[in-house]
Amino acid sequence: MPQGEVRVVPDQLLFYCRPGFEHDVAAEVAVHVKLLGWQGRSDFSPQEGYVCFLVEDERPANELHRELRFEQLVFARQCLVALPPLSLARDDRLSAIVTQVVASGWSFDAIWHETPDTNEGKALAGLIKALTRPLESTLRKRGALRRKAAGRRLHLFWTDGDRVQLGMSFAGNRSELPGGIRRLRFPSAAPSRSTLKLEEAWHEFIPRDEWDERLAEGMQAADLGAAPGGWTWQLVNRGMHVFAIDNGPMKGDLMATGLVEHLREDGFVWEPPYRLDWLVCDIVDKPARVTAMVQRWLTRRWCREAVFNLKLPMKRRWEEVERCLAQLEDALADAGVRAMLRCRHLYHDREEVTVHVRLRD
């Protein structure tokens, strides 16, 4: 850093989320931060799609980021170490950005421009495109953007045409998706758009190089609350045999595959005839009731892996998720069942979260 320039130290963490879930991110982060022994406070506005956590501690924010594992978070789409927001001059937006990047003392091997997942954010696409090349060129000349920088990524989070916040992320503790969003193409043959929720869950929870082993042709699965067949379609598309449990009708094309046995029964009481490879469930009911049902399946080892959604209340959603996950973890531990459990608020989810559990035999 040139002599006389003042070092800018990150003092906060920046979280992206679905607009409307800012309070849930703040509540969840508060629990994790307290357990890690840090102090701070969240700052956010409803429906803005992001939360800033201001570190009120003498330690640098990047230390907290290192301790706070992104994969453990439910409602955050991305987690960054962030610098104070910048207000930019309309006739020279780049100078302030370059000055702050250089003053941070960090270097990066990639730059991502991102916005909140709002209509206002999407409207900034043209401006961002115009600034991208000039900014990259300038930062290369200043030595802040180079070919190898240990995987560090610079994120420019644009909230307005004259307001941006700089964040940085590190390989192994971030989302590798722009904006933390996995956009999937809707398969026209699928019965409903809910099919994308299960496909996204597989991408999120199962490494792609394990799909042929863990989502294999010939496996046996149950889909509770299956009609009209959006999740069953994903299972059949992988060549699995499916017990589709629902009193409602299934799409005729699915039944024609010969891979689906449709049973008009109550998914909460139905029991499989033998151990299955997969349980999936997207039943609309109270999250505690769905958790108890899945808990019965897992403690009795009726399946090897499960993906299920929990429909959340309008208020105190994080508290409900925390309660359901704790209930499930305690029940598995009491039954002596070892399992890996993760939960995420996926892009194709709305007022719900997706839980994945894999039993460890």
TrEMBL record:
Keywords: Cytoplasm, Methyltransferase, rRNA processing, S-adenosyl-L-methionine, Transferase. One of its GO terms (biological process) is rRNA processing. GO terms for cellular component: cytoplasm. Residues 192-251 form the Ribosomal RNA methyltransferase FtsJ domain. InterPro entries: RlmM_FDX, RlmM_THUMP-like, RNA_MeTrfase_FtsJ_dom, rRNA_MeTrfase_M, SAM-dependent_MTases_sf. It is an enzyme of class 2 (transferase). Pfam families: FtsJ, RlmM_FDX, RLMM_N. Coiled coil: none annotated. Residues 92-170 form the Ribosomal RNA large subunit methyltransferase M THUMP-like domain. The keyword Ligase does not apply. GO terms for molecular function: S-adenosylmethionine-dependent methyltransferase activity. S-adenosyl-L-methionine binds at S194, A227, P228, G229, G230, D246, D266, D282. Belongs to the class I-like SAM-binding methyltransferase superfamily. RNA methyltransferase RlmE family. RlmM subfamily. Monomer. Catalyzes the 2'-O-methylation at nucleotide C2498 in 23S rRNA. This is Ribosomal RNA large subunit methyltransferase M. It comes from Billgrantia tianxiuensis. The lineage of its organism: Bacteria, Pseudomonadati, Pseudomonadota, Gammaproteobacteria, Oceanospirillales. The gene is rlmM.
